Amino acid sequence: MDKDANTVRVNALCDRAEAIENNAEICTIRNMAATQAMIVDPQTRWQTYGVQASAALEKGMQIDPANPRLYYLQGMSLFNTPTAYGGGKDKAKPSFEKALVLYKTFVVKPLYPNWGQKESEAMLARCQ
Description:
Helices cover 73% and strands 0% of the residues. The protein is mainly alpha-helical.
């Protein structure tokens, strides 16, 4: 799979979706697309795609601060960022904890995604 071409296609689909409704779920997809583009070559791409990934999460949190997937993705980013650059298990743990708190009251809407709780639980266990 060509990750760069996939990122372009995903972002084009997100543009179309946002024309219908701007919601936090689209922000999660934009975050994942930017992360995918960044991991092709993290050392040279983090300044561009890392910023895009973070911006997507921030925008999603403004739209719907109760969406637990945003915090799961934030935790994943922090977990996979070296401690020398402000990441690591200790930095990621609060994001996974917040995601799990939000999953307790999160109401799934019809046709909306419903993923991330088990993943958050597994990642929190890795942070212990």
